[in-house]
């Protein structure tokens, strides 16, 4: 008989206003994304150990250790006699110190509060830490572009995108690990500066730019894309005082700051790569001046003046540029940038650049492998940006289009593409979801309205279906990313593992065995000759002097080593005496089936060896059989079978029984 | 101050010199009636066991006797122990004026030896690096030969009536050995003697050149760090440098031969380290990372670790590694009140028949430890105490360090460390964490509430004010909602108790409070109007709906009262109640949607 008791309470246990709930939700999603991006990079640490990966990170680790122990001034003045014997290398002036300074600072701060973590662990976990920060910056960047929803989706996407993970797993202690963070931070600050037109944000942008310059050579991309953005704004007639303030401040402060990095030095005012930025800076001033003049003159007067000035300026500008380039004041574009514009340039001209696998053009499959659904969402995101064209959307469109071109040219630039893919896909996914989610919401409250708006057939059902499909896509993306990270990007490459016959794990630790033997059982001043790939690892792990390393700055010297490897034993002996070599290190994978050994790289040694004057007698075709094959069995070419590398690798190999018999 | 120290040091030196200058004399009354010497040269160590039967041939009681060593033996002497009938005898260094070239140890007998009586003494001696690889360099496939140069007679200051020496060898392969009749050679042993009536200090060179492929591996430096935590854990870490001190490798090392032919006799592929049974979280690494080639076997009384260096060790090769583990503290740390005793091994097993050139033990105690007293089973050199800083430390943890040279397996003995630790200090670390988080949160709270802008932003401020007002509206409405619930309860109660008077007094009170809350919300609504008309409208709307809700509830109440008083039939009541309930429901729904938006 009694009526059911009503629930008067309007709020649950979370006694919060809508805004607070909103903040809480955002914070929760963001922190989870940041934690996720950190933890999914730890596969290799859990599977193997907390160890530095690959090649370049070993150099970075060694220099960081030096910096942490010896202080910044000693680091700055460091002449490294362990590398490039007998030339040596001035480390302080030939590296981007941002990475080392960051880790050393973290190390010192932590030790100051008695958190006694060693330099190696700081180095190993730096990249995951910075990818967490990247997640946060991506959120803010996408929020500026589209809104918090897009920001959250983009943040979650970048947390696990394989294209970025490939370079930032724990132990992959390389410049790119922090550079992506710096890059996105600069973009965020730049967009803020363009939006607000304040000196504060512009200065922040230049500081972020400075950090970027100090950490990666890829800053050149940044100093070209921002002027390009400004230029596009000018052409589309969107140039305003905001853009003027933002760019003028960024260019002036950013350039002065970037010149403080000794490796960069006077490049920002002397090389062609930076000329675009300078030109746009000039244009900015002219444009602003023209705007000012226009506001003071009538139309006809202005037209005359404008044409006269434009033609004179253009002619003199081009003349000056030509003269300066001819006089060598402006350095011509370096090889790597030519190969960016013309993918075949490097292969034809500089074998050392072409020999690096990460400088190869990207295969189609690797786009899908590294980005999965982002590849398809990217154009959708572009579409949404075009539908509502703003200053900042133009920027992200430019960034997206340019980076997709560069990523196609060089595999390693996939890294630059991944963030913009995430941002654009974030915009796409969030725009579509919010559109369709609204349709679902309508069902309950506005059923009556639906009758009048009968144009949409079964609209809530379709909307529900669409949201489900989208969720499936997102789940697939997550699964794919986790799988790729775990399978492809989480092996330290210094330790190899394989499955035994009984399913147990076999670990090949031969690299470290060799390096450790060198470290403890050779004289302190022994010189080790090896192909340049192993240079950084030998100096870091074996602590011995090497002839060439991964900083391939002297082609002649590398070529000399290539010649020694490719020559007959007596010729090689002469070269090695000349270079003062005590030990020769070769990696041979024939026994264990390790494919990227020195025989695999041997043709590059021949090519690079033969590319200089002294190696004129080394010709690539001598190392092929008459039929044009590269064979290492008894039918191989005699030149190959008698060269030092072959003899060292296959010494008594005929007596060994391998799995293949 | 410095002067005083210098004076003190000088005094000490003088005193020490004076002590050393006192010479012992050889007691001619003592006779070695029988000496049975066992020389074990089957490993890299030289282990000597002398069973001596001493006789007092004089007339006075004998309290001590001397043991003699050559200078080289003394330098390589690692361990010396003398015991008689199960009790360990005390001994100390001694000198004899007439025999400056010979080093002596003076052993105190337990009981004075009376004239004509005999006593059995067993002396155990371990010496290192007395076996010389000969030839000094060998190729990979060759066997390692070593040479031992000693004395056919037991070096003793006393006349020996009869003595025999048995030499134990690692294998039957002997290149050559010196002969002093009677000498017998069986499979893996050579027996010299018995020799009768040997005068004191007799020497006759003994040479044995034999095959010894046992590992000649010296630990050149061992640093053992014991970190004690009062939270239940003791972490032990040993940093070890090992060097193969056997015959050096001549010529190249062939991995192929090494893998296929197993002919590298003297090289060391792996060795076993035994750790305490409770050891867990064991690691084995070096400067460049984890060494993946090791196996661990947990046994009842120990954890056995099969360590394989990164590369096989040949003569002259060295390596360096770290090994570490945790043990629970209850096995080693005893306490009574504030007094603690740590009882652990100074040195632990490295591998069988090991010899350590230099040992450094560092014991890191918790912060705040005082009155440290260290007792060691044999003399060690105590290094100055230092401080160690690690997680959550403020003043640093005291570190007790000791060092000693030339140790062998027999030195695996316990040290005892006494110290005081006020248990209140256990709270220090958790408190530090709490304070750190507290400061962090406070900073965030202050930062969020801090307004650092120079110019006032009215729009934002108005927005913030409105949101704070809305928060108040929510609070008041929550109170009101609870009051409505109470009202409903009263209504139900009335239905069952039918006590109108009591119900009326109760509901009056509730109604008054509801009015107060409603008034409060209305006041806030007026305030909101100053900043945002939109929100003020919403509050008004809320108030209107609330009025409907309240009226319906009150109407229901009146109806029930009528029903109870019999002024209304049940059917009438039911008919009146249903639309009221519906009204209430609708009003509530709308209230919820409004409150969801502000």
From TrEMBL, chain A:
Record key words, sorted: Endoplasmic reticulum, Glycoprotein, Glycosyltransferase, Magnesium, Manganese, Membrane, Metal-binding, Transferase, Transmembrane, Transmembrane helix
Membrane disposition: Multi-pass membrane protein
Residue ranges that the Swiss-Prot or TrEMBL entry lists as coiled coil: none
GO molecular function: dolichyl-diphosphooligosaccharide-protein glycotransferase activity; metal ion binding
Domain AglB-like core, chain residue ranges per copy: 519-586
Pathway annotation from the record: Protein modification; protein glycosylation
Biological process, per Gene Ontology: post-translational protein modification; protein N-linked glycosylation via asparagine
Gene Ontology cellular-component terms listed: endoplasmic reticulum membrane
Cofactor requirements of the protein: Mg(2+); Mn(2+)
Its EC number(s): 2.4.99.18
Principal localisation: endoplasmic reticulum
Quaternary assembly: Component of the oligosaccharyltransferase (OST) complex. There are 2 OST complexes, OST-A and OST-B, which contain STT3A or STT3B as catalytic subunit, respectively. OST-A and OST-B contain common core subunits RPN1, RPN2, OST48, OST4, DAD1 and TMEM258, and OST-A contains DC2/OSTC and KRTCAP2/KCP2 specific accessory subunits. OST-A complex assembly occurs through the formation of 3 subcomplexes. Subcomplex 1 contains RPN1 and TMEM258, subcomplex 2 contains the OST-A-specific subunits STT3A, DC2/OSTC, and KCP2 as well as the core subunit OST4, and subcomplex 3 contains RPN2, DAD1, and OST48.
Similarity comment: family membership: Belongs to the STT3 family.
Name listed for the protein in its UniProt record: Dolichyl-diphosphooligosaccharide--protein glycosyltransferase subunit STT3A
Organism: Cherax quadricarinatus (Australian red claw crayfish)
TrEMBL record, chain B:
UniProt record, GO biological process: protein N-linked glycosylation via asparagine
Signal peptide limits: 1-20
Coiled coil segments of this chain: 477-504
GO CC annotations, alphabetized: oligosaccharyltransferase complex
Main location per the UniProt record: endoplasmic reticulum
Keywords in alphabetical order: Coiled coil, Endoplasmic reticulum, Membrane, Signal, Transmembrane, Transmembrane helix
InterPro entries per record: Ribophorin_I
Pathway: Protein modification; protein glycosylation
Residue ranges of the TM segments: 431-450
Keyword Cell membrane listed: no
Keyword Membrane appears in the UniProt entry: yes
Record localization: Endoplasmic reticulum membrane
Mode of membrane association: Single-pass type I membrane protein
Function as written in the Swiss-Prot or TrEMBL entry: Subunit of the oligosaccharyl transferase (OST) complex that catalyzes the initial transfer of a defined glycan (Glc(3)Man(9)GlcNAc(2) in eukaryotes) from the lipid carrier dolichol-pyrophosphate to an asparagine residue within an Asn-X-Ser/Thr consensus motif in nascent polypeptide chains, the first step in protein N-glycosylation. N-glycosylation occurs cotranslationally and the complex associates with the Sec61 complex at the channel-forming translocon complex that mediates protein translocation across the endoplasmic reticulum (ER). All subunits are required for a maximal enzyme activity.
Assembly: Component of the oligosaccharyltransferase (OST) complex.
Family membership noted in the UniProt record: Belongs to the OST1 family.
The protein's name in its UniProt record: Dolichyl-diphosphooligosaccharide--protein glycosyltransferase subunit 1
């Amino acid at each position: 008989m009694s009526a059911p008791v009503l629930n008067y309470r309007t709020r649950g246990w979370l006694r919060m206003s809508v805004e607070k709930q909103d903040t809480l939700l955002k914070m929760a999603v963001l922190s989870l994304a940041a934690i996720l991006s950190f933890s999914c990079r730890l596969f290799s640490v859990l599977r193997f150990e907390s160890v530095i990966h690959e090649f370049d990170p070993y150099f970075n680790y060694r220099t960081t250790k030096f910096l942490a122990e010896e202080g910044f001034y000693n680091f700055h003045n460091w002449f490294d006699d362990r590398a490039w014997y007998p030339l040596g290398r001035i480390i302080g002036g030939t590296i981007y110190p941002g990475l080392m300074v960051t880790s050393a600072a973290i190390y010192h701060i932590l030790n100051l509060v008695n958190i006694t973590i060693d330099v190696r662990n700081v180095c190993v976990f730096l990249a995951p830490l910075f990818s967490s920060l990247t997640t946060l910056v991506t959120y803010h960047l996408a929020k500026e572009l589209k809104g918090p929803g897009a920001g959250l989706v983009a943040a979650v996407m970048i947390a696990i995108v394989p294209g970025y993970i490939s370079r930032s797993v724990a132990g992959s202690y390389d410049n790119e690990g922090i550079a992506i963070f710096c890059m996105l931070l600069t973009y965020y600050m730049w967009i803020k500066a363009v939006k607000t037109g304040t000196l504060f944000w512009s200065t922040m942008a230049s500081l972020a730019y400075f950090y970027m310059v100090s950490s990666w050579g890829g800053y050149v991309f940044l100093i070209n894309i921002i002027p390009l953005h400004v230029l596009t704004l000018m052409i589309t007639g969107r140039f305003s005082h905001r853009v003027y303030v933002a760019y003028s401040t960024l260019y002036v402060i950013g350039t002065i700051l970037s010149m403080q990095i000794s490796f960069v030095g006077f490049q920002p005012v002397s090389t062609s790569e930076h000329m675009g930025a300078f030109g746009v800076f000039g244009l900015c001033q002219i444009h602003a001046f023209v705007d000012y003049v226009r506001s003071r003159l009538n139309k006809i007067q202005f037209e005359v003046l404008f044409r006269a000035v434009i033609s004179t300026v253009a002619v003199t500008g081009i003349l000056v540029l030509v003269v300066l380039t001819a006089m060598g004041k402006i350095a011509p574009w370096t090889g790597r940038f030519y190969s960016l514009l013309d993918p075949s340039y490097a292969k034809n001209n500089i074998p050392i650049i072409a020999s690096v696998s990460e400088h190869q053009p990207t295969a189609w499959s690797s786009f899908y492998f590294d980005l999965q659904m982002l590849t398809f969402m990217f154009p959708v995101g572009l579409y949404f940006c075009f539908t509502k064209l703003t200053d900042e959307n133009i920027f992200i469109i430019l960034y997206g289009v340019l980076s997709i071109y560069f990523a196609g040219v060089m595999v390693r630039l996939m890294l630059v593409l991944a963030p913009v893919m995430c941002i654009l896909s974030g915009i796409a996914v969030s725009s579509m979801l919010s559109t369709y989610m609204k349709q679902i919401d309508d069902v309950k409250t506005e059923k009556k309205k639906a009758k009048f708006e009968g144009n949409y057939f079964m609209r809530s059902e379709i909307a529900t279906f669409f949201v489900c499909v989208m969720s499936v896509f997102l789940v697939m993306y997550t699964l794919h990313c986790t799988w790729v990270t775990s399978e492809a990007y989480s092996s330290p490459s210094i330790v190899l593992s394989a499955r035994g016959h009984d399913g147990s794990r076999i670990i090949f630790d031969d690299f470290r065995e060799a390096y450790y033997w060198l470290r403890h059982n050779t004289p302190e001043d022994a010189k080790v000759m090896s192909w340049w790939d192993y240079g950084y690892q030998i100096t870091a792990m074996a602590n011995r002097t090497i002839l060439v390393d991964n900083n391939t700055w002297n082609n002649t010297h590398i070529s000399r080593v290539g010649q020694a490897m490719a020559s007959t034993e007596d010729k090689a002996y002469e070269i090695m005496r000349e270079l003062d070599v005590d030990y020769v290190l070769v990696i041979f994978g024939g026994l264990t089936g390790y494919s990227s050994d020195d025989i695999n790289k041997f043709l590059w040694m021949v090519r690079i060896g033969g590319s200089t004057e002294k190696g004129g007698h080394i010709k690539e075709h001598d190392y092929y059989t008459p039929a044009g094959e590269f064979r290492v069995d008894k039918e191989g070419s005699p030149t190959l079978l008698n060269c030092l590398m072959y003899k060292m690798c296959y010494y008594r190999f005929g007596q060994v029984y391998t799995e293949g018999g | 101050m410095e002067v005083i120290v210098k004076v003190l040091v000088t005094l000490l030196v003088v005193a020490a010199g004076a002590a050393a200058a006192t010479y012992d004399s050889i007691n001619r009354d003592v006779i070695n009636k029988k000496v049975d010497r066992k020389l074990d040269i089957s490993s890299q160590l030289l282990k000597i066991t002398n069973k001596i039967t001493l006789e007092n041939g004089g007339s006075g009681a004998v309290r001590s006797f001397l043991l003699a060593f050559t200078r080289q033996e003394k330098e390589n002497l690692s361990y010396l122990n003398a015991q008689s009938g199960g009790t360990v005898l005390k001994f100390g260094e001694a000198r004899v004026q007439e025999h400056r070239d010979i080093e002596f140890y003076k052993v105190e007998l337990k009981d004075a030896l009376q004239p004509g009586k005999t006593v059995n003494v067993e002396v155990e001696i371990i010496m290192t690096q007395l076996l010389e690889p000969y030839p000094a360099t060998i190729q990979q496939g060759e066997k390692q030969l070593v040479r031992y140069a000693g004395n056919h007679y037991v070096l003793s200051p006393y006349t020996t009536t009869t003595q025999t020496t048995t030499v134990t060898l690692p294998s039957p392969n002997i290149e050559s050995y010196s002969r002093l009749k009677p000498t017998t050679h069986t499979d893996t042993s050579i027996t010299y003697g018995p020799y009768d009536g040997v005068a004191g200090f007799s020497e006759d060179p003994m040479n044995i050149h034999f095959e010894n492929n046992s590992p000649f591996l010296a630990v050149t430096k061992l640093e053992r760090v014991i970190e004690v935590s009062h939270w239940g854990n003791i972490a032990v870490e040993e940093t070890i440098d090992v060097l193969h001190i056997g015959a050096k490798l001549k010529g190249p090392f062939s991995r192929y031969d090494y893998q296929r032919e197993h002919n590298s006799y003297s090289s060391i592929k792996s060795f076993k380290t035994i750790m305490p049974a409770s050891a867990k979280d064991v690691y084995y690494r070096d400067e460049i990372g984890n060494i993946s080639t090791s196996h661990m076997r947990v046994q009842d009384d120990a954890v056995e670790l099969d360590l394989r260096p990164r590369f096989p060790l040949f003569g002259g090769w060295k390596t360096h590694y770290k090994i570490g583990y945790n043990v629970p503290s209850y096995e080693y740390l005893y306490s009574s009140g504030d007094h603690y005793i740590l009882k652990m091994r100074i040195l632990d097993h490295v591998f069988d028949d090991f010899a350590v050139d230099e040992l450094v033990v560092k014991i890191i105690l918790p912060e705040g430890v005082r009155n440290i007293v260290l007792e060691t089973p044999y003399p060690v050199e105590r290094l100055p105490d230092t401080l160690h800083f690690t997680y959550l430390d403020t003043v640093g943890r005291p570190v007790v360090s000791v060092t000693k040279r030339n140790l062998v397996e027999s030195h695996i003995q316990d040290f005892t460390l006494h110290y005081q630790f006020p248990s209140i200090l256990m709270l220090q670390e958790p408190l530090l964490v709490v304070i750190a988080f507290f400061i962090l949160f406070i900073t965030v709270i202050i930062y969020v509430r801090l307004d650092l802008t120079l110019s006032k932003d009215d729009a934002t401020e108005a927005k913030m004010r409105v949101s704070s007002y809305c928060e108040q509206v929510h609070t008041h409405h929550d109170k009101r909602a609870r009051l409505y619930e109470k009202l409903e309860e009263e209504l139900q109660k009335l239905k069952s108790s039918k006590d109108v008077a009591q119900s009326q007094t109760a509901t009056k009170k509730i109604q008054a409070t509801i009015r107060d809350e409603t008034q409060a919300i209305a006041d806030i609504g007026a305030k909101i109007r100053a900043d945002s008309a939109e929100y003020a409208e919403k509050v008004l709307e809320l108030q209107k709906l609330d009025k409907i809700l309240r009226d319906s509830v009150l109407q229901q109440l009146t109806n029930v009262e009528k029903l109870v008083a019999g002024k209304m039939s049940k059917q009438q009541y039911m008919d009146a109640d249903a639309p009221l309930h519906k009204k209430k429901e609708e009003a509530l729904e709308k209230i919820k949607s409004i409150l969801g938006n502000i």
